[in-house]
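Recap from last week: sequence in, structure out.
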Amino acid sequence: MSTAIINLQLSKNLAAQERRAGISLAMIYAFRMLGLFMILPVFALYAEHLPGATPFLMGLALGIYGLTQAVLQIPFGMWSDRIGRKPVIVIGLLIFAAGSLIAGSAHSIEGIIVGRAIQGGGAIAAALMALAADLSREEHRTKMMALIGISIGVSFALSMVVGPLLNQWIGISGIFYSTALLALVGIAILYFLVPDPVSSHFHRDAEVETRSLLTVLKNTQLLRLDMGILFLHFILMCVFQVLPLVLHDDIGIDASKHWQIYLPVFALSLLIMVPFIIIAERKQAMKPVFIGAIFSLLIAAFIFLESHLLWTTVLALVIFFAGFNLLEASLPSLITKTAPATQKGTAMGVYSSSQFLGAFAGGTIGGSAHQLWGIDGVYYSVIAVLLLWLVLAVTMKKPTYLSTYLLRLKTEGKQHASVEQLLAVAGVAEAAIIESDDNGGPVAYLKVEKRILDEEKLLSLGITE
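Predicted structure tokens:
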């Protein structure tokens, strides 16, 4: 999240329509993620009183959306290539709203599980990213994605505070009904604020290319990062299955006051995390910072395990969220640095699916551990996963610190800049030229070292307006 915040200043270079599209799409994405996350800090306290509820079923209800989201997001993206982005996004938001209404009106844990599964079935992430790509020029697309990236981080932070507040005022059912309303607001934003693209076509930097899937899945460095985001959201789901119970039952804090803990904790964790993001990028210390963040989660898990006091629990939360936010910001950056420029969209698609599968695994496995071994069993499961993650992180290669850069090339007749000419530009490390799917001319897919990139010379080879 912080990487996106730091890069927000770059959005000033976006054209007015691109900025409007980016902000509007970010709002739609934020509303949807807010709807999924708002129940996270309060659901455990509510679900334990439902008829037939068990820790396993409670975990399944929390994480089931991840399974349907992971299964359907790539097909929805491909479907949007056929029938258009906006129709698919509308269908996805209506499905999400329907799931929210079903969950809100449910009087059993099974009904909430069905509603949450349907919520995840409104898998619009890939279609939203494809629409963002349709509405942005190649050289500005990263900035557009940064705006959307901000929305994801902000929605998660807000959910930690807004969830407990709304639960106090309107209850869990009201939260679900509110998320249905947010989905309908998202549809209004889509049609009244988001511009219609001049053309809609496949973007290999933003969408999954099926021919590249096997290559991406064979890349062991990318797989390490995919497992990383899976583990991260596994851990998140595990922790929030039991943390509200600990705060309420063991420490004695009323559920209506949990937001008073999450708000300062989240703010402090961000202040701690931002300097490490800067160090990781500027000092090219991404790997040690990355490993340190995983280790911080391990420390937090051990404190959670032994904590029965408010101050130690707050300390564990600060450490946990500092590490979590750092990893959440670092992993997409590492995917970009690791994936070939022409396979970035496919790599990000697999990464996103892994994230949702992590939420599902955390809900089901964490729920099983809670049912079999109690709260300590959940934390021991988290510790085991973190130890495995540390092994994968320590053995990964040092990142290259290269960024993806797209440039539509100038053509004179049938001639345009060659791969050799692009590689001769200072700071360009990799180059591939692909004929554009919209017949708008060839596009150069580059990996560049921004600190030494001669961008003026590079832009002289391309079309930037």
